[in-house]
Amino acid sequence: SLWMELPTRPTLFDFQGISMIKYFTDNWENIQNFEARPDDILIASYPKAGTTWVCYMLDLLYFGNMCPERQTSVPLHERVPFLEICAPPRPKGTDLADQLSTSPRLIKTHLPVQFVPKSFWEQRCRIVYVARNPKDSVVSHYHFSRVNRILPEVGDWSTFLQDFMEGKMVFGSWYEHVNSWWEKKQTYSNLHYMFYEDLSENFGRETDRLCSFLGLSPSAEEKEKVRAAVMFDNMKQDKMANFSSTIQTMNQDVSPFMRKGKVADWKNHFTVSQNEHFDEDYKQKMKNHALCFRTEI
Ligand code: A3P
Known about the structure:
Helix content: 40-55%
Order of helices and strands: EEHEHHHHEHEHHHEHHHHH
Structural class: alpha/beta
Bound molecules: adenosine-3'-5'-diphosphate
Radius of gyration: 18 Å
């Protein structure tokens, strides 16, 4: 069976001021000393922002034509290694990245900006940051955490929501994550900040923006291929992208990785009073009005 034996769910602990679990800190030395190459592309996000969606887009934009067999034989998480993961018997993210023979290498991370290995900045690597509105992010995270034993145990929805608001989540506070990456963009020009809601609303426009940032100019036909391949229903069926082919730490029968893929599913989870409380708290925490999230489109 591909079911991965984990002794117990991990517990959150404070790691240099950020809530983390051991599966993302155990390989810390190798992560911090990771040697980025100038053409590496880092895909960064807070968990559940649509990272996999964007990883797949980039993989197809770069390699879809050149090596189509990649898409059918190599799982996406090997094509785009998750830098900080260290959960034996899964291979370490840093090892997978070191073994990549592609150029550029596509690498995924959920690290807060201050934890990104310094070589990425020194090499002036291109970075794509994916952000998603907090209400849909927390709902997605809740369902994912319920079924994924690599993550801390979850209680009920209202406790989870409160923990999210207090930053008691893996990779710390959503509010700090999106804000500090946004601030980084003001001084680091090789950073493209994109939103799940925009992708959902106008995929073509977002593909063009992404390509212009990456210096790619795919043909209309290539773009159409990418669009079709990464449509939610297609990705959901795609064994190389839906995590069903890999060593499993999650029970997808209860809640699949490709769950809904919608904007505003939070409306099916938040009560009226939870929503009021959340909005009030959000106003206090998000003072930068240049960074604007849409909770519906
Ligand atoms: P939901 O749980 O709301 O469905 P990440 O990859 O960062 O873990 O994000 C996972 C979320 O992105 C899930 O959200 C998943 O369904 C959604 N997602 C993945 N691929 C998608 C696609 N092609 N189109 C729309 N949403 C997608």
